[in-house]
């Protein structure tokens, strides 16, 4: 099989109503990726996820440097192609961020093509582990711009829909407000429901130690991204001294950085995201690294779950998956959560095929 064409795309899908966390304001989700055609008529789609900023830099990396290098290549040589692009001209200007996310999009498209050619959903092409469903937790009712009343209403509604765990954002200017909101949510949802909190990197070590300790009483599943993602020693200190597991990974870009976090005992839930590391090829390596340390993988959903549902279904130490439904409607086979569990996709491929009408409607480039 040979690649005959590779062209980037940028879609901006509205988020209604807009949401905030401690460091992001998102009015649209950026679906920036690549559509790859082959001489056997199989078309692959791969993409990375943004808050609809910087997409043009990712797209131009694909069009100017990655696409020309793909023409004529066999998609099944995916790992050789990964090395060639990773250590190509873009290596000099970036081993993370823009150039790495552009490679993620290309790599996902190649795994989409290979599994389509095999007539299998990616989770079966990789070798299935969970036979029919994977556990979900819902983030889409816990945003930092939600009023306390809306927070409580959404959290209880999501649990009534069958979710057994929900996540809320903290990181307000005054941590006492965070404490009050977490206390109110825990009171409203009862002691049985699972609850995670996500700081989105807003605290320093002093705030994290002080308020992490105070929040222990609410029996949290994890404390997510409490500090700057480059502060490994700080997260190690929190992992040692707080009685709540530390979760992070959505801002960790490659297997070496995950190695440092894992080897230094600075992470307990590994949230490796296929759209932030360079695709399926690198995601599998990080999941294997976590497995060697008996750590659970719970991916962040920069892809909004379409690809990660496959990866979690194929990975023994992947225990559950975040659910945010902002863009599911644009896909040929949208993620489907029923009674708190993702139903596994059946169509061949990585569930990245975008419906033409939405491709046109949301395309900005
Ligand atoms: O932190 C997260 N999940 O754990 C969310 O991805 C972000 O809050 C949203 O994407 C908004 O940028
Ligand atoms: Mg997060």
Main β sheet profile: 5 strands, parallel
Bound molecules: (2R,3R,4R)-N,2,3,4,5-pentakis(oxidanyl)pentanamide, magnesium ion
**Quaternary structure annotation:** single chain
Q: Radius of gyration in whole Å, from Cα? A: 20 Å
Fraction of residues in helices? Answer: 25-40%
Shape: globular
Termini separation: 28 Å
Q: Numbering strands along the chain, what is their spatial order in the largest sheet? A: 5-6-7-8-9
Order of helices and strands: EEEHHHHEHEHEHEHEHEHHEEEH
Number of helices: 12
Strand content: 15-25%
Counting helices, strands and paired strands, the structural category is: alpha/beta
| Count of distinct strands | 12
Overall mean confidence score, pLDDT: 98
Query: Low-confidence runs (pLDDT<50, min 5 residues)?
Result: none
Keywords: Magnesium, Metal-binding
Organism: Cohnella hashimotonis
Cofactor: Mg(2+)
Protein name: Mandelate racemase/muconate lactonizing enzyme family protein
Describe this protein with a few key phrases:
single chain, metal-binding, about 375 residues, binds magnesium ion, about 20% strand, RHMD-like, Mandelate racemase/muconate lactonizing enzyme family protein, alpha/beta, 5-stranded parallel beta sheet, binds (2R,3R,4R)-N,2,3,4,5-pentakis(oxidanyl)pentanamide, Enolase-like_N, 4-stranded mixed beta sheet
In short:
The chain is an alpha/beta fold and 365 residues long. It has helices at residues 55-70, 78-86, 98-117, 122-125, 148-160, 175-189, 205-215, 232-241, 255-263, 279-292, 308-313, 356-362, and strands spanning 3-20, 25-38, 43-50, 133-138, 165-169, 194-198, 223-224, 246-248, 269-270, 321-323, 337-338, 341-343.
């Amino acid at each position: 099989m040979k690649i005959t064409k590779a062209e980037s795309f940028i879609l901006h899908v509205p988020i209604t109503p807009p949401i905030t966390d401690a460091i992001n304001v998102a009015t649209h989700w950026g679906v920036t990726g690549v559509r790859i055609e082959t001489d056997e008529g199989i078309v692959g789609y791969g993409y990375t996820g943004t808050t609809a900023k910087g997409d043009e830099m990712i797209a131009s990396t694909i069009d100017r440097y990655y696409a020309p290098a793909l023409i004529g290549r066999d998609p099944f040589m995916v790992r050789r192609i990964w090395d060639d692009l990773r250590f190509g001209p873009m290596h000099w200007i970036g081993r993370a961020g823009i150039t790495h996310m552009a490679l993620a999009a290309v790599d996902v498209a190649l795994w989409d093509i290979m599994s389509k050619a095999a007539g299998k959903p990616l989770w079966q092409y990789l070798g299935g582990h969970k036979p029919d469903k994977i556990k979900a937790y819902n983030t889409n009712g816990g945003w930092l711009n939600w009023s306390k009343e809306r927070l409580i209403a959404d959290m209880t509604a999501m649990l009534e829909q069958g979710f057994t765990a929900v996540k809320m954002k903290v990181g307000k200017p005054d941590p006492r407000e965070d404490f009050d909101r977490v206390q109110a949510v825990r009171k409203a949802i009862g002691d049985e429901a699972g609850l995670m909190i996500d700081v989105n990197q807003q605290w320093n070590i002093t705030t994290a130690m002080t308020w992490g300790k105070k929040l222990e009483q609410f029996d949290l599943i994890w404390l997510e991204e409490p500090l700057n993602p480059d502060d490994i020693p700080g997260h190690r200190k929190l992992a040692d001294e707080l009685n709540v597991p530390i979760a992070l990974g959505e801002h960790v870009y490659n297997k070496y950085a995950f190695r440092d976090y894992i080897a230094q005992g600075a992470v307990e839930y590994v949230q490796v995201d296929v759209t932030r590391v360079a695709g399926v090829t690198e995601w599998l390596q990080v999941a294997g690294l976590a497995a060697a340390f008996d750590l659970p993988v719970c991916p962040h959903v920069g892809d909004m779950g379409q690809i990660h549902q496959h990866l979690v279904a194929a990975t023994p130490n992947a225990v559950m998956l975040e659910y945010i439904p902002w863009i599911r409607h644009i896909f040929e086979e949208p993620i489907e959560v029923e009674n708190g569990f993702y139903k596994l996709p059946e169509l061949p491929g990585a569930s990245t095929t975008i419906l033409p009408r939405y491709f046109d409607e949301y395309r900005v480039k």
